[in-house]
Amino acid sequence: MSDKNIKIEPLLGDGQKWQHSYEQPISYAPLVQLANNNWIVPQHFLRYKHTLASVNEVLNDISFSNHFSVLAAEKNSDVYLQVAVLSPDNYRADNKAKKLLFGRRWPVEQNLPTSELIQTAFLALKVAREHEVRELFQLQHQGATSTPFNNHHDLPVMAQNPELVKSTSFKNIPLNDLIERVVFADNKIALINCQAIITGEQVYTVKLHCDSCQLSEFNNKTLSFLAPDATTNSFLHSFIVALVAVSNEYVSEHFKYQGFARFSKDVHAEQVGELSIAMRSPSSVSLCSMGKQEANQLNFEIDSGRAPQGCGQAIGGFLAAHGIEQPENAYLYPNYL
């Protein structure tokens, strides 16, 4: 028995089965020894077969926030993720009672690598929180209040009447007057500083005055951001981008799988790169000829199975528009293109 075969034993559970029922190493899968002397099978040499039970098993190892929960559900044998949000009504400052809301559905392919499943949950949380941030941003208009960056505006109406939202003659009001009309999380904001830089961009520093926001990273937050020019429209668009960035950073720092925050700034990018090389370089993997055949077959199954059903004609038109008759990897789609 080779040294590598001996080393695989700690990776197996009772009855010499793989540690998770929803992922199995391919035949002749390589074992790679990491810098800390641990032995692993890289994820790209595993087959996956996720079910509702396995997805829930993965989600149980994810921690984030009491107000946002990633759920797994199933419909017609298709598993999907959905974020449940417990939040006050963003459109009623006088009502702090919590409402239960659900975000969009995120399909989970049966052969989705577990790492990608975890990152799908990560992305779902970012999108759900961005939705909240956009609704918390309000603009007052002579006795009425709008949320100009929310996701519920009637896009077909806007597309059919662009002159109503893209008028070049729209008046650019003084910035201080605009600041008086901006509300975030039911509180006014304050402009701390505004400075033009040599590129013509504007650097703004803004203070938020909310102190009990459910999205706690915004409580009494001071943030700076760049705007491409000095117009009030650029200020508003750049401000919402900065607010969404604050939310995204919060998710990156607090979203954890088995206690590990993958996208935190505490994770060193250069070391992630070195770990990736250790698990992918030919010298580390050293596949035998049978292992190469198994790996090629696995890659074929994954890539060919990703083609959207019933879209062959549309893809043909897509390729033709780029002057391509057959892509280099046409062999993946023998009955498709």
Would you give an account of this structure?
This is Orphan protein. The protein has 337 residues and is of the alpha+beta class. Among the domains are: 145-250, no CATH class; 307-337, no CATH class. The protein has helices spanning 3-8, 52-59, 114-136, 155-160, 175-179, 232-254, 269-280, 282-285, 289-304, 312-321, and strands spanning 23-25, 32-33, 39-40, 46-48, 62-63, 68-75, 78-88, 98-108, 137-141, 144-146, 182-184, 187-196, 202-208, 222-227, 256-257. The protein has a 6-stranded antiparallel sheet with strand order 10-9-11-12-13-14. A 3-stranded antiparallel sheet has the order 6-7-8. Strands 1-4 form a two-stranded antiparallel sheet. A hairpin with a 2-residue loop joins β11 and β12 (187-196). The longest helix has 23 residues, at 114-136. It is globular, with a radius of gyration of 25 Å. The model has no long low-confidence stretch (mean pLDDT 90).
Which features characterize this protein?
337 residues, alpha+beta, three-stranded antiparallel β-sheet, 10 helices, 15 strands, Orphan protein
Summarize the topology.
Elements: H1 3-8, E1 23-25, E2 32-33, E3 39-40, E4 46-48, H2 52-59, E5 62-63, E6 68-75, E7 78-88, E8 98-108, H3 114-136, E9 137-141, E10 144-146, H4 155-160, H5 175-179, E11 182-184, E12 187-196, E13 202-208, E14 222-227, H6 232-254, E15 256-257, H7 269-280, H8 282-285, H9 289-304, H10 312-321
Helix pairs in contact: 3-6
